Amino acid sequence: GQSLEQPSEVTAVEGAIVQINCTYQTSGFYGLSWYQQHDGGAPTFLSYNALDGLEETGRFSSFLSRSDSYGYLLLQELQMKDSASYFCAGVTGANNLFFGTGTRLTVIP
Amino acid sequence: DTAVSQTPKYLVTQMGNDKSIKCEQNLGHDTMYWYKQDSKKFLKIMFSYNNKELIINETVPNRFSPKSPDKAHLNLHINSLELGDSAVYFCASSHQTGGAKYEQYFGPGTRLTVT
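Structure tokens for the assembled complex are given below, as produced in the milestone run.
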């Protein structure tokens, strides 16, 4: 089966840095994706890691360690609009996504 | 232009009824999906269609039947609706191989409420 665990909630201050962790147990694992979802909205793609290491996209970075079955999303220079739910998702064969439990990020002034 | 669209956005119906949700994508993708997001925001894949062929069915009750008339459309028909079917249903699409980033594009969702 597929299992991806994340902290349920994280709170951080505007302008700060926050890290959202994801530990996984999946079969047929290709890589780890991250999606953002605002309340009432649709999930939107943020990043994908196929290989171990750090991928950087603007203020967001994502990290993967296959040997540890672990990844994280790093958000820098937090803005109020970053308040949302963040999901890690394991990518398996045929581009199937198995989503994690989700982390609700609240950015406070 | 809307990339992935779904209709209706809201659907309120009674137990036992049959309903359909429509999905269309104009991205030229060849794989489409249906996801269910429950009240705790857990997102779970239900179906995946590639070039009109079903390639995954994650233990979904057979009351749910996807129909793909062509690769730009993937509709979801639900028979004999139950209270537990209340959720937000998302349609998504991607290239078959997912491209370099295995990115999926999601529709706006359909909030189904069964009373």
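DSSP finds no helices and eleven strands in chain A. Chain A has a mean pLDDT of 94. Further analysis is deferred to the final report.
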